[in-house]
Amino acid sequence: MGCNGTENGGRGSLKRRGLRVGIFGALHTYGRRLNWHPHVHLSVTAGGLDEQGVWKNLSFHKEALRRRWMWLVRDYLLGQPLSQLTMPPPLAHILCESDWRRLILTAGGQHWHIHLSKKTENGRKTVNYLGRYLKNRRSRAVVWRITPPEPR
């Protein structure tokens, strides 16, 4: 799953504009009350560098971004061969591709929550906030690395 177009929710907008954005992600497996609550935090720069290294501002439209994010995650998961996945015990009953597809297309319903925070003036607050989770032993068990494709 790469960063191939979330700006304004348009397909390939970043790629079409030749922009490279910064993205930092953290997979959280628990909530504030230390309850099991897997969710993803992503911090995205409010702009990107063009091919000449010039900064270009970006804007994000929440509803378009929410729909696009939901589809990109589902599309990525549907592209994974079931035979190469290790299911946790609660999902051990999923043995065929049609069951896998049904799970992915119904998980979370049609409304996935996204929250767009206010833009920070510098990255220090963001680094401090996300850094707390990376220092925590519960979070270190998960390593999630996604390298976006090079702009063409």
Automatic annotation (TrEMBL):
InterPro entries documented for this protein: Transposase_32
GO molecular function, one term: transposase activity
GO biological process entries: DNA transposition
Highest taxon listed in the record's lineage: Bacteria
Residue span(s) of domain Transposase IS801/IS1294: 22-135
Family annotation (PANTHER family): ISSOD25 TRANSPOSASE TNPA_ISSOD25, TRANSPOSASE
Protein name (database record): IS801, transposase
